[in-house]
Target: 3-deoxy-manno-octulosonate cytidylyltransferase
Amino acid sequence: MNKLSGLVCPITKQPLYQLDETHVATADKTHVYLIENGIFRLLSSKINYRIVIPSRLASTRLPNKPLAKIDDWNLINTVVYSALQTGLEVVVATDAQEIEDSINEFATQQQVKDRVTVVQTDSALENGTERIAQAIDKLALDDDEIIVNVQGDEPFFNPQIINDLVAHFVEVEAKDPSIKMATIGQLAQGEEVTSPNAVKVVTDKYGLALYFSRNPIPYPRSVDQNEIKYIKHAGVYVYRAKFVREYKALAMTPLATAESLEQLKVLEHGYKIALMMIEGRGFVGVDTAEDLAQAQQIKAEYNRATANPLDEKNYKQFLASFGRKYLG
Model:
């Protein structure tokens, strides 16, 4: 392998070597990158991380939401299948036997039973991160393991974004250990600016979150609202298992309670959250009946346009249309 002058892995800071015309890697090949239009995109990493999906049956706005149908699959199984396209192990932390039974049946049908684990958790937990905390304790995961929290109501997303976010987290954490989480932002569109279901976020000039709100932030006191680029938060988090355990032990905070946003508890206790911007279609979340109808329409359009929609290669290409890391 030929060493590339002046180029290092953003995660390990080790020199990069040319594998072929389109791929580079560290000498030990623990980190492999695709060169795409002059940009290096992480393809594989031996960092120890997995996806954990919190999913509870109760939902105030959409009853039995995880079991709601999106084409032939229900919502939670669609999320699981999208998550599997990252190549990672997937854990579902749930409070309902119906969800566990549905996932097990689905995983058997799709022949992915060895890559999907379901963990039963208490129904009284406050939020998804607390549910994940209980699951990782039951699995006895090491404190240093990286956890990717993918919400159980986000059926469609580009799996490459997950790997990009992990790489971003490891890079910023190495520079500033007080950064305990990384998450995703994208430009809010149309009604998302004012919708309480679309959480907005503002950051400092270093890309660290200052505040999350269901209201439009910042408030346009001295400028036209159309001049502001509002950032919508996508509910995906990366953190280490140790911090997930610490989070559960932290006292609930006033702002997190007022906005009903679990990530505000992190900020109120003085920890930092890094934001990675993405562009394009972005994550599709299902909070309401209208959102569910949109997800059903997206899947139906894909089925009509694709000769073999269940083919894994076709499905990965479909998911790749849901945004990518913003490169500036």
